[in-house]
Amino acid sequence: MDALIPAAVEDQQDSGVLASITIAQAALKTGYGQFAKGNNLFGIKATGDERAANQPTAEYINGQWIQTVDNFRAYDSWADSVHDHSERWLLRALPSVGLRWCRQQRKEDGFR
C-alpha cells in the first residue's frame, strides 16, 4: 500500500478527498493491495463500454449471498483508480445524499 500514498496525496490536493480515507478504503477493498485486478482499488463496476476486468464476486441478493462473476472497471494505474473513485464520490455520491446530511452525520458521530 506504500505505493498508493503519492497518488492518494496528489488526489487529496486536487479533489479534497482525504488521502487517509482513500488509502483505508483501498486497503479494505483489496486486502491491502493483494486483490486489485485491473488496478481497481475500490470495486467499481464497469458499465457500458468502459474497459473491464472480469472477476468473481459475492453479491447480496434477496437476502442471500450469491457467488457470481461480474465486470469491474480496469485502470492503467492505481492513480487512475484513485482519481476515478474521488470523481465518482464528489460528482455522484455526495450530491445525492447532500452536504447537509453529511454534516449532520459528522455531528452525530461527535465531530464538529
Top CATH class: Mainly Beta
Q: Any idea of the CATH topology?
A: Complement Module, domain 1
- In the CATH classification, which architecture applies? Ribbon
Straight-line N-to-C gap: 30 Å
Silhouette? globular
What is the radius of gyration computed over CA atoms, rounded to a whole number of angstroms? 15 Å
Hey, roughly how much beta strand do the residues contain? 15-25%
Q: What's the total count of β strands? A: 2
Helix count, DSSP H or I runs of 4 or more residues: 4
Domain Mannosyl-glycoprotein endo-beta-N-acetylglucosamidase-like: 6-91
Keywords: Hydrolase
Pfam families: Glucosaminidase
InterPro entries: Glycosyl_Hydrolase_73, MGlyc_endo_b_GlcNAc-like_dom
Walk me through what this model shows:
By secondary structure, the chain is an alpha+beta fold. The chain has a single domain, classed as Complement Module, domain 1 (Ribbon), CATH 2.10.70.40. Helices cover 47% and strands 18% of the residues. It has a two-stranded antiparallel ribbon with strand order 1-2. A hairpin with a 2-residue loop joins β1 (52-61) and β2. α1 (5-15) crosses α2. It is globular. The mean pLDDT is 86. Keywords: Hydrolase. InterPro entries: Glycosyl_Hydrolase_73 (IPR051056), MGlyc_endo_b_GlcNAc-like_dom (IPR002901). This is Mannosyl-glycoprotein endo-beta-N-acetylglucosamidase-like domain-containing protein.
